[in-house]
Every structure is written in structure tokens, then in C-alpha cells.
Write a structure and sequence with these properties.
Radius of gyration: 28 Å
Number of strands: 11
Length: 280
Amino acid sequence: MRVLSALAVVALALSGRALAAFDCKKAQVAGYTYDLSPLANEITLESNVTTPPTITGTKYRLNPCAPLAADPDSVPAIDRCPANSWVCRLVTNFKKDEKPRVTEVNAVAGVGTKDEPRLEARASGNESPREFHWKMSGAEVEKVGWSADIKFICDKSAKNEDQPKIVGFSEGVLSLEWAVPAACALGDDGKDKTPDDKDGDQDDKSGGGFFSTLFTLFIVGASLYLVVGVMYKSLVVRASGLDLIPNLAFWREFPYLCADFAQHIWDMVSGRRRDGYSVV
């Protein structure tokens, strides 16, 4: 059963890795490629409002490229950001001579494990968009669906380390503006894309998508074949050790079959193949 468990874990890991995920390094907007990977860090934005006799502090944690890391165990479970959050909102109440009290914590963006952001931009002819929006839905709070809308602005005079600005939080929508060089479209040479680059990237994307899908299907199919075969032999046939491998006899002969096939092809190509019987 240890062999069975190990194989199942490996198969699940391979299947999970094969599935496509949001790629910040090759983000696609209107057919142009953007490298947002320099922004792939957790960022914290804070603002305070005086609400006598207290001060209300609002903190936003966000990562535009991946879900937030889990809070440490030192944070009470009720005060932690929900799992799979990409943007999290925490509201804390501060009062003199009293401990801070978290009054609100929820996911502004990201709820499920398969949630990913959408990148949207207005068409701008043959030029790459200088602005685009990063949008993602979050939790539903009091029948209002929360979401985040980050407006990325191409600004080569800024630095990727610059933080986004809070525009506002209204009706469950958090609006941010982020002016950084990473928000500028890239070509193969690292410069702004041209219309010719755009056409080339579309072809690459189409070809890469086909082979990526084919590879994914192969990995998932091979994993299922291995796991189901091992489970059948373990639970039904009661096999153990190497006998757990499905179609073991075939796999033992497989290298020789490949060698015979390669020799056959070589004989055909080199013209050494002869019709009729061969001397044994």
C-alpha cells in the first residue's frame, strides 16, 4: 500500500502541475505580452480614519500574480484572510488603552482554488494598450459581490517597486491605480511591441497552446493509467512489488520493441531492406 500511496501522490502532483495557471511573466492583453513578474510580491496598503473615540484602520494585502501566503499560526483563525485570497481587506479598530480589535476580514479577490484574474483593455488600433485593468471577483458580503479592479498604467519613468494607489472602495469594488514599467507591453527583444510582433506572438501562442494541451492530456492520461492499474492489481489481483505495475510484461519488452522498430526504420532508410526470406 505504500507503493500505491506514493504513486497516487506523484500522479496528482504531475496532473496539478500540467494544468495551466495564470502566468504573470507572459500575461496576454489584447494580443500583446506583458511581464508582470517583477510585481509578484505581497504588498500591503494601509489607511486610517479617525472615528472618535477610536481610529479605524483599513489594510489591504494583495499579490497580482498568485494567492496570498497563509497567515502565521500566531494570528487567530477568525482574523486570518480566507484561503485562496489574492486581495484581502482587514479592518481594525484602535482605542486608547485597549487592544486592537479586528472588525472585518474578507477576500476582495479570489475565493476558489481555480479563480484567476481577468486582464481587460480597450482596443487601440495597432498600438499596445498603455493602460489595462486587472479584475477579479471575491467573496459575497451581505448579498454584495466584492471584487478588485487594478488599473495598470505604463510608466517607464516609475519603478516596479512603487506601490499602487487606492482610488476607493465602493459598493464592494476596490479600485487601485498602479503606474509601473511592468505595465508596458514587451516584444521578443524587451522593447515595446509592434504590430508585426503582435502577429508573430499570436502564431506562437496558437502553436504553443496546442502542444501544451497535448502534453497535458498525455500527463493526465499516463497518471490515470498508472494509478488505476496499480489500484486494480493491489485490490483485486492482490499483487505486490513490481507486479503492481500494469502490463508489466509489455513494459519489460518495450525497450526491445523500440530497438526492433528503430532497426526496421534504419534498414528502410539505408536501403538495406530486402524482400523475401532472410537467413536465420
